[in-house]
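Q: Sequence in, structure out?
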Amino acid sequence: MNDSVDQLLAAASFAARAHRHQIRKDGQTPYVAHPFRVCLIVRHVFGIDDPEFLMAALLHDTIEDTTTDFDDLSEAFGERVAGYVAALSKDTRLPDEAREAAYMANLAVAPAPVKVSKLADIYDNLRDSKSLSVGHRERTIGRSQQYLQALEKDLPEVARHPMSLVRKLIEEMRTAATTARIA
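A: Exactly. Output:
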């Protein structure tokens, strides 16, 4: 195998170990299914096979949601990949409103692997919310639209198709939520 495949497999194992005790909001699904799906979305839905994009997708929640820090990722995957993951992480030391504002500002100026990984994260969270209540889906849609506003600033070419797919999914979900509310 070549180095990039080895690194990608190492990132998958790292994410699995880091998230091993976490469960998704449905109360049943191991959390690691989410970063694996985000990686698969980048590769198979968005059509991007760059190893750094895929590693950023696999590792995107490790700093924010586990005991992993920047140095752990830098040592294992290099400073650039660690930087992508850091840019995908909210600063939990800040109060909610300031945390979201800082996160949005970072997304607006983020490099392509960060923007694509966040789009895949949004895509997966939207699809995952289909099994939750209408109210929860509507909150997920609203938050997703806020992230899209930040991401669309200086949107790189490689992120344009993913952005259109996420926007299409939001519209489908908004229509379904409206229909469910009426029924």
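The chain has ten helices and no strands.
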